[in-house]
Amino acid sequence: MLDQQRVSTGTTASQVALEQWARLCQAFPEPIIGVLDRAYDATWLWCQLNDLPLKGCLIRLKLNRCFYRAAPAPTGKRGAPRKDGDKLQPNDPTTYGNPSGQQEVQDSQGRTIEITWWQHLHLKEARWLEVSVIRVARPHAANSERDPRVSWFVWIGDQQADLVEIAVGYVRRFSQEHGYRFQKQALLWAKPRLRTPEQFERWSHVVAIVLNHLVLARDLVEPALRPWESTHRTPTPQQVRRAMNKLLPQLGTSACAPQPRGKSPGRAKGVKIGKAKRFLVVRKTPKVPPLIPK
What we know:
Blueprint: H1 13-27, E1 33-36, H2 43-50, E2 56-60, E3 67-68, E4 87-88, E5 101-106, E6 112-121, E7 131-137, E8 150-157, H3 163-168, H4 174-185, H5 197-216, H6 237-251
Parallel strand pairs: 1-2
Antiparallel strand pairs: 2-8, 3-4, 5-6, 6-7, 7-8
Helix pairs in contact: 1-2
């Protein structure tokens, strides 16, 4: 985990994500590829990411998104020429038309994946931003909410990039989802009931540091496996966490030894503990105005 930042009251998730990507671009010497889920389906964010020194961003789409092909040549008739061509909408098969390319590949388990893509598309809100739309079909999937057979993505960035390789690489992002689940269930990220945002932010940083320590300790301990867990796979953070009780005594600690104490005297007589401070519900605008090209 490289960065973790709380979305404050005065910002949105898209604005925080943009700040994080800007810092990551400065930290890496080579252009990197961003992978975002459906929560970042926002035109404003796409326009901003296009200005960063990224190789590109692959973002999962909502099915009601609407893209447009290049406008047709002027017909010479009276009136303003068309600014948009035929549309492409993921939930409307009649708008698919002829794709720019189609290819079948095999995943790591030898199952077939069908990839179709459309290039040189744009949005009405930002006609200057050229994007590619990718459709990934997995016939072997269960076709459930967590395992859909068809997924749609938008590629923002280098239009000459290998879209097949990029689309197949989206599967790497799911490890991040499992990482957050592990933090909540095993590292008790959401368990403490803290009163201020600053306290919870410090606790979030502690949990992130612990997760990174487990990743670094993967080669230093023998993972504790359950009888049904495979011995041929890379140890998971949970398996490493079970074995940390053997490594921690060897590392020692810089803290002083705890001193024995007697029975706590408790709170002083007459102290009154007030109720936790309540705050009004903050409702944020769901849409951010699109970027106006310079």
